[in-house]
Amino acid sequence: MAEKLLYIKSYGCQMNVYDSQRMADILKPLGYALTSTPEKANLVILNTCHIREKADEKVYSDLGRILPYKDEKMVLAVGGCVAQAEGAEIMRRAPYVDLVFGPQTYHRLPEMIARAHRSQDKKEGVGRGILDVEFPVESKFDHLPQERNDLSVSAFLTVQEGCDKFCTYCVVPYTRGAEFSRPVEDIYKEARTLVDKGVKEITLLGQNVNAYHGLFKGQEWGLGKLMEHLSTLKGLERLRYSTSHPRDMEEELMRVHRDVPHVMPYLHLPIQSGSNLILKAMNRKHTREQYLDLIEKIRSFRPDIALSSDFIVGFPGETDQDFEDTLDLIQKIRFAQAYSFKYSPRLGTPGAAMENQVPEALKAERLARLQNLLNQQQQAFNEACLGKVLPVLFDRMGKKEDQYLGKTPYLQSVYITSNTPLLGKCTDVLIEKAYAKSLTGPLQSDQQN
Ligand code: 5AD
Ligand code: SF4
């Protein structure tokens, strides 16, 4: 079969990265090989993100950049969450796009591509694009190939998808659909394929990953039990998971953090705001006190756990006091790292229709103050590791010669120069320097020599 070139660009979250990889897995048997630029590609897929305004706009500007390379042989496709939310709008604004498909229909790509080629052959011309943004009854996971390709040391594996929580700022329940958990056996098989191919670390993904409740022989298992089961895979060294919701943080999961060494001491647990009024307006269904209690309980199981979170500043109605409450919560908890965003009104979500939208300039000012505090905490967390010996899993080469990049159990980046190969190895490093976003130091074995 003649080789065809496939270019995929992934925007947004880790689940989109996973989806992009699975698209490549589906297309490999059809003769598509990945390429890193769109110019000569036979198939270009933009796997889009709708979470904030800027993410949307990037797609249209990238489409404009690709258009000059588009000839009659190139199939241009837009997938992902923007496609799901505004597929018809994409086809109107960019009529040269051949395919538009959502996150739940990409298993049908071979069929869609064949149809696109047929309409190109018939020269049906512009405006004949194919739109598939259904939420099919059957799960795409039942149609994805067993094979996983282009893997590295660390891999993603989606175990749960979608959301039924309807936070008032968020598009995810509309773009990804209802909450769904894959069966345990399915996940185990995929994890085994990964480990057989040399993967050492798996990050289990889900929009509400700790709400996971997959079936095992007729019984429902939570995320903790699932990870305990996966930890029996020979060759697997580390397990992580993302993203969690405070309401789904069960004791079983905390126990697994304490008892299963494969489960890394890192937890991304978004709270979004430290103000009860804003949490209520966001429909988060938990208070700041409940979150603080939860953190205390988690720390009682795993005192060294690195905590991470997401914050939104400038949600409609956020006063100076609400914002101060957020800063106060951050001071109380001390995060190892966090993500923070200006509120971006998303069409169709309740937040967009709320009164008291916060002016952009004020959002920017609050974001700067918030990030300043979070950066200080990250620096402090990193500095607290000075002098410690931490096991680092090296998963990438750095830009410089013989430079390796890896992660501590707490998900801090470590870089090191070594003339012995380290890729795929989990090795002890003595932390001698701590920066805002990284750590470095000698290998412990070098120290002993
Ligand atoms: N505006 C700004 N940030 C948002 N997020 C989700 N929706 C919005 C929005 N409309 C942030 C939340 C979420 C993360 C993935 O993105 O903090 O946890
Ligand atoms: Fe973006 Fe959310 Fe879709 Fe991920 S699930 S791509 S973050 S909109």
Domains, number? 4
The strand order across the widest sheet is 2-1-3-4-5-6
**Helix- and strand-based class?**
alpha/beta
Bound molecules: 5'-deoxyadenosine, iron/sulfur cluster
Q: Give the beta-strand count.
A: 22
CATH-derived architecture of the largest domain = 3-Layer(aba) Sandwich
Helix content: 25-40%
Low-pLDDT residue intervals, each spanning 5 or more residues: none
Query: What is CATH's topology name of the largest domain?
Result: Rossmann fold
Globular, elongated, flat, extended or rod-shaped: what is the shape? globular
Characterize the largest beta sheet: strand count, sense, and whether it forms a barrel.
6 strands, parallel
| CATH classification class of the largest domain | Alpha Beta
Determine the strand fraction and express it as a percent band: 15-25%
Question: With helices defined by DSSP (H or I, 4 residues minimum), what is the helix count?
Answer: 13
- Global Rg: 23 Å
Q: How would you characterize this protein structure?
A:
By secondary structure, the chain is an alpha/beta fold. The chain has 4 domains: 4-132, Rossmann fold; 151-264, 2-Layer Sandwich (Transcription Regulator spoIIAA); 271-384, Transcription Regulator spoIIAA, CATH 3.30.750; 389-440, OB fold (Dihydrolipoamide Acetyltransferase, E2P), CATH 2.40.50. Helix content is 34%, strand content 22%. It is built from 13 helices and 22 strands. The chain has helices at 14-27, 53-66, 80-93, 109-121, 172-175, 184-196, 223-230, 251-259, 276-281, 288-301, 320-333, 360-383, 444-448; strands spanning 4-10, 32-34, 43-48, 75-79, 99-101, 130-132, 154-158, 160-161, 180-181, 201-205, 214-216, 219-221, 238-242, 266-268, 306-313, 337-342, 389-397, 403-407, 413-417, 426-430, 433-434, 438-440. The protein has a 6-stranded parallel sheet, sandwiched between helices. It has a 6-stranded mixed sheet with strand order 20-17-18-19-22-21. The chain has a 3-stranded parallel sheet with strand order 7-10-13, with helices on both faces. Strand 11 (214-216) and strand 12 form a beta hairpin. Helix 7 runs parallel beside helix 8 (251-259) and helix 11 (320-333) packs parallel to helix 12 (360-383). The longest helix is centred in the last third of the chain and has 24 residues, at 360-383. It is globular. It binds 5'-deoxyadenosine (5AD) and iron/sulfur cluster. 5'-deoxyadenosine binds next to strand 15.
